[in-house]
Specification:
ligase activity; mainly alpha; elongated; three-stranded antiparallel β-sheet; 5 helices
């Protein structure tokens, strides 16, 4: 939809009106036949039609182009009233700058910034509303440090609130301790399994060393026996030599 023509000051050229909604062009596009439309209007039209609503020539979304520069300049120079005129705004400015003005207009209806509040007020009255809003929050004046809503002033109980917060902190602490405990147990189990594996490996290595030592001792005994045998043979040979 375009801009309501009633908002404009002075004459508006017929060529600057949307061929569909007949209001002043908003975010305009132009067909090859040079008829102009609001972007939203022509896109909605082409969902159900495939031609220009003015002369019935074939039109496709891919054929739409931006408005000619001179027409765009004429459009931007048009003067119109702020949409908040009914609330008291008397601003008249160019179409080119109207969006910027209306985003900052003191007469714009904006929502209250307090969570839970559904009231909409004029921007210029927002501070006054926030001062009395039942959803405004503040720190308890009695020193408990709890943030409370103004609507909860009469129900607020410092001791009860602190007890509740203490219980929450205690529950959180218990959960953290349990998590730390489980983590430590998991680490100890992992280290225990690692130590058992290392112990098994060491025992196997000890068995292997004992086996090697046993073989070495057996070899040593065999060598000593062979040496004794050799010595005895030498002694016997020496006796036989002496007898000869």
């Amino acid at each position: 939809m375009g801009y309501d023509i009633e908002r404009f000051v002075g004459y508006v050229n017929e060529g600057l009106l949307c061929s569909i909604c007949r209001d002043v062009l908003e975010d305009p596009l132009q067909a090859p036949c040079e008829h102009a439309f609001c972007t939203a209007c022509i896109h909605g039209w082409l969902v159900h039609h495939s031609n220009c609503p003015e002369d019935r020539q074939t039109v496709d979304v891919s054929l739409l182009r931006p408005l000619y520069r001179y027409m765009k300049n004429d459009l931007n120079r048009l003067q119109l009233r702020c949409k908040n005129r009914e609330h008291g705004c008397v601003m008249i400015c160019s179409l080119e700058s109207i969006d910027r003005h209306e985003r900052e207009c003191e007469y714009s209806q904006i929502p209250c910034s307090n969570a839970g509040c559904t009231v909409r007020v004029e921007r210029r009255n927002l501070d006054g509303h926030l001062a009395v809003c039942e959803y405004r929050s503040r720190e308890c004046p009695n020193g408990c440090g709890i943030i409370i809503l103004s609507a909860e002033d009469t129900q607020h109980n410092c001791i009860g609130e602190l007890r509740t917060e203490l219980e929450l902190l205690r529950s959180e602490m218990i959960c953290r301790v349990e998590e730390a405990k489980h983590e430590m147990e998991s680490r100890l189990d992992s280290q225990r399994r690692h130590m058992v594996q290392k112990e098994s490996i060491l025992q196997n290595e000890i068995k292997e060393l004992k086996s090697q030592m046993s073989r070495v001792m057996s070899d040593v005994r065999s060598l000593m026996a062979a040496e004794r045998q050799h010595r005895q043979e030498l002694e016997q040979a020496e006796l036989e030599k002496q007898e000869l």
